[in-house]
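User: I've been going back and forth on whether these two constructs are worth ordering. Before I decide, could you fold them both?

Assistant: Sure. I'll take them in the order you sent them. The first construct and its structure tokens:
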Amino acid sequence: MRIQRNKSKRQTGGRNKTISPPPEETSRLIALFQQGDISEAESVVQSLIRHFPRHNLAWKVLGAIRRQQGAFDEALSAMKQASIVMPEDYICLRNIATLLCDLGRYVDAEKYSRRTLTMQPDYADAHNTLSIALRSQNNLAAAEQSCRRALKLQPNSTEYLANLGLILHDRKSFSEAEICYRQALVLNPSFAEAYCGLGLTLQATDRQDEAEAACRQALTLKPDYAEAYNSLGGLFNEQMRYDEAETAYRTALAISPFSLAVSHNLARTLSHQYKHADSEFYCRQVLAMEPDNAEAFYDLGIAVAGQDRHSEAKDCFTQALRLKPDYPEALINLGNSARAQGRIIEAEKSYRAVLHAYPDNKMAYNNLGNILQEQGRLDESEIIFRNILTSNPDVTEAYSNLLFLLNNHPDKTGKEIFQEYLRFDEHFGLPLRSQWKPHNNTQAKGRRLRIGYVSPQFCRHPVRNFLEPLLSLHNKDMFELYAYAELNKEDADTDRYRSYMDHWIPTKGMTDNDMAQRIRTDGIDILVDIAGHTGGNRLLVFARKPAPVSLHWLDFGYTTGLTAIDYYLADNACVPAGSEDLFSETPWHLETPCLAYRPTEGMGPVNLLPAMERGHITFGCLSRVVRINHRTIRVWAEILKQIPESILVINSGSFKDSSMQEILSAKFSDHGIERNRLKIGYTSPPWDVLRSIDIGLDCFPHNSGTTLIESLYMGVPFITLADRPSVGRLGSSILEAIGHPEWIAQTEEEYIEKTVALAGDLLKLTTIRADLRQEMEQSPLMDEPGFTRKVEEAYRAMFTKWCEEQQ
């Protein structure tokens, strides 16, 4: 801020009395300020203002002091007083414009800049300040014009050159922007601001290493330069180096605590790291200072959604859209909030609204495909995912969504579906074979093997009922365990998983190449995929073959399609002999069931058969709607017709939305089943629902999973249809494991016959209910140590086979 000495004198009261202090006082004040003795300068200036309240210079110095102290509002008040006592002081007007820019009041800054230029048309600093105000209002063409006018008046001004660089950067004229910064640096090689701007422009042209070097040079020249730390944070953010980005932003905030931009950037980086509570704190700080910031409301919505506060998130996204109606990301996340709360139809409307305005929005299109799938509208969903892949064939998420959909499709054959998995490998897997490298793992017989488990579910998730038995009972003398944790958030279950492991490696944000290299560096012998094509999978890491042996097990329930993965851990029921050609991996059959079950705490005791009290049979299914299709509905409707007084309970998260309940009810109505025969809803946890059910009905062609085993544990037998391997054989695998193959049907007609027969024998159902939990507990399905030993034997055999192949 420039300070202009006031040499004029004024008359007051008709007496020849000066309103200015003696020259030596003003000289002393200027010297104190320029020497940085702010405390003494403030004392002097306050004294001068008391004695000479209409002294322009004193008010300007007070304004400069307050600005330096960060008290911008007080600085502005002082500068305006200086302008009042001397209206012709155009430098004062320009200083006010600069302060208004600091306060983010760019419209007012523009007005004061133009007033200055009316008084002094060739005042270069005023043209430059005007360009800053215009740029901040996104009036880039006018900003460039003003800045070039300033440069025409002072061609060698490094400040103006750097400002023009910023404007050209915003206009995406990156080559011209770079020229401006480099010209400034020729004139002043120690100009930190030019290095900082150059770093931003180099980043925009994907010259990341040069950009980082420029930002670091700015900090070498000016170690307390908050904006350079902010730029460095942005660079790290783009490279997913979130820890480093966070450090950079926090350093910038330590230097400039009131920076809205840095606080907002830090909030976003914290969200990228799933530190949602911390992100929320900084979003609220931004909104406290700038309550109409649409982007801050959006980021606050992301932060609170990450903490499962979806109702609050909805309010945040709604507010963001109120402030910025043209905001597709906010509208998409408004749909996501509705989806998280089970309001499926409302979510669909949000995604369609985005696509109406932005037909090419891939995220909205993908989410619409998912939401249609969740409604059981598989053909519509399939069209969407195929359209996405036609225009964007490298979107792995859309391909995985398509494969999950096909697994559940009631009218596709196993061979048809498997062909799509092979195409996935052709497009994503096979091209990565060029990155395969020889493995030098020690082949010493009987040595301790390093097993790497890759999963996004090392947290509270149904997979824990099957994953924990193995991980908690591993023989640590023979197996060294590595967890590659692709987690969005951690919880108490995460802590328990961590305790089972010898090594814990967070992988969220790690590139596929970096993760594959980390696995190689760790010397993993056997790499186990727990995700398949579910969300958060790292299949493209497996496609790079980072370990000599790899296998898929547990979650997803079918092949990955990747020929880079060696084995699929199975049993004879879910992958029967003759079905091996439906798997890209080699099925490795255990002599036990391919999983062991550990019940969830608090399920409570088995109750008496409900039918004995009610006088009618209650059937039940706790599966999500994607598995309830026209085939299952037809079969279940026929069962209800044959058992006239019976009731069917359908209970899952798919039916939080009352609209979804009515849609399903209408499908049963088409088969002559009235609404009062159905109890559709959602209860969590479902233990009391299971206590209300006499017989469970499994879905097909994709069987249910965890809910089947939970039903058995609560004394509820179920009828299953053995369909296409392996997702259509899960029910068979479970029933074979507990010694009840008689509940497995081979045709839809047999499914109906077995169900009706079982429902007609209440005495038998009563006995089954009383004995089923104990039968389970004594069966291989709950033999945790036995299952673990069989898996460890399989691991040892797999690695031995690899060693033999190296000979």
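The second construct, handled the same way:
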Amino acid sequence: MNTSIRFRLQMMKLATLAVLATICAVAAGTSPPAPLAGSAAVPARQDFITLADNGHAHYVIRAGAADAVTRHAAAELGDYLSRISTARFTVVEEDTGDLPAIVVGGQGAVQHCGNGRDAELGDDGFVICQWSGNLIISGNTPRGTLFGVDWWLDRELGVKWLAPDAEEVPVTRTLRVSSRTISEKPRFAYREVLSAEGEDKPFRAHNLLNGESHGTSFRPSPPGIDMWDRRWLARGGDFDFWSLVPRSRYAAAHPDWFGGGQLAMMSPDVRRVMAQEIVQRLQALNALSPIWFGIHDMDWGWDMDAASRAFADAHGGAPSAAFLDMVTDVASRVRQSIPDARFAMPAYHWGFMPPEGMTVPDDVLVYPMTIQVDYSTALNEGRNVPLGQGIRRWNEIAKHVLVWDHIVNFGGYLQPTPNLYPIGRSIAWLATLPHVEGYFGEGDWQSRGGEFSSLRVWLVARQLWSPSDDVRGLVRQYCDAYYGAAGQDIVRYIDRMHEAARTTGDVLAEQTPVDAPMYTYEFVRRSDQDFDSAERAVAGDSTKLARVRQTRMSLDFVILALRSHYAERAQRDGWDMDIAARRARLSSALAAAHVTKYRQSGDLSALRDLLDVAWREGPGTAPSLVAKLKEADWREIGALKLNLYDSARIVADSEAVRGGAVSLGGDSQAWGVQLKFDKLPREGNWDLFVEVRTPDAALVPPAAAIRVGAYPPMTRRIDTPVSTLSGTAYGWLAAPGGPFSYSTDHERGVYVHGLGFAKGQRFLIDRFVAVRHDAATAATSAMLNGNAP
């Protein structure tokens, strides 16, 4: 007999028994118990339910439906209840009548719980209640039922899924739970963390994350948890401009379509071609349910064409106006062929701020991307206030908003990054915006083992379900469970790094180099003591000790990378940094945690190169470029303060002024080395110069050049042939577009990369020098004037 039919028959049988019990009670002159609202069933009235006692189970488990997800939920419930109680909870196919059942899911089950309403629970909500002696855990969907089981095991029974390889299961001989009726629904309908840990499918299912987009959607799921929301940016459902209007097909005949780095968005021909391409792709995809088809810009800037600029100017100067107008038009064209088509567009970089005088159609979802975020504060606080204003405005003009947040330091996956508490405050604030219905947190998806990576997944998942939960209390709860007796030491360290960022006022951007001001001597010394205490606390527990040492990687990395900064003070204070032992501990922890990247595109060989550099401290020798200037009129900005991308890595170089330089592949077209303007002095206007050399200058092709540019716009740059430089020695190049001034806006900066080098050839960047603009020397003025674009 079909499982759902059996379940309905069982419910009818129990309802009949309940009615008979009521008749008997009336005949006896007593009043029957009041039924739950909306249900004819008789609820239990005790304050708790005893599930097992002294190794004996008082309930059986029964799946109320035959689908794989519901059956998996029932089996998982039986497994964990057995492990908690040491009793054997049997999963049965049919009602045996011997024991009451914990009924997992099933058609109509929700209605038997007084607070259960299908529309109110949505796809992920659930109810838990007693009904005629049985216990019901059910959602409207198999996913809701599975989440009900996992929520109950976690919040009510104390099971904790803390990392892909870490779960805590309590053990008790008498297993009791509250008898109250529970109705739960997440605040955010879409919830996902894109990180190596967040992509672990059992881990995120246990923590009630439902979204599956990007690379994760290309990998199969076990049938029992194959219940993901794949409507947004999943496999086959998201493409950039140049895929939807292919350059290879149209650029030769229509170069004006691709000017400025994006598209001529106001062009009717561009829109027509894009709509035709999308129709073909949607028809080929043949999705079983409507998706939010993604149309996204190229991941760089945009020098707008005249028509797009005019349209933007008419709508508050926001370039997003042209993008939104194009998507609205393209969507209308596509729906002539596919009436239920829906679309998703990012608000990113140049397109982040919403336009004035426009609204977003209901069949378009907007996802603001927080690439400009300062991790040290919430999305609506401090330097993030403009960012928060943009999100709030999108919420006002769009019905469907999903926030793509950035939650990791892409410039240092291992570095201490104090954004745990700000993440919590951000989610609590986003929950107040009624049209923000989803959250996607982009973490370290290139490598496992990043700084507090599992904690971030767990914390974000918790708050996306219930944003009002206290973030500090959640962090303490996690640390106590994951680190055991060392939990209080780790919490103290977490508090310390948040305070360090607040005290120094650092900009903690999505790319923050290792030489950050918050990593002071006092911070690393006291944090090292925190970890010493943590290790002592769990010295007898090899599992917890390994977790502490994995977490200690962050601090060990900073101390090793900046050891020359701390050496003099450490010697004075009698602190033995024990560099050899510390590096050995770091290496062991990296291997145990399966770390493969220490920053975006920076593998472990690049990490070894960085840690091998013996940096020279002290004032050094002023470059000839500034020999006649006062000390206050120039500033050295070393390799450790630069943002590194693509093939860039820091290496030892005896000819560099401090003993180390950035090595960059000359054949890469990426802006591999960038200087952000928050590294400039906070007062004044400054001209910028970069010191470069090519070790194999005689071997590079004649056309090889080094490009120095400043953005925006994308076209401001100077290309200097390697043949005109000083052989293999260091020489200076000017950055165009100055003078520059201090800014925390990471949408602006200076970059360096190579042109025309042979594959495998590299060049070196020692440092930048900032020269006060009104103190320019004849030498600096000549460079700037001679190289003016």
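Notes on the second construct follow. The chain is about 35% helix and 20% strand. The domain at 190-469 is CATH 3.20.20 (TIM Barrel).
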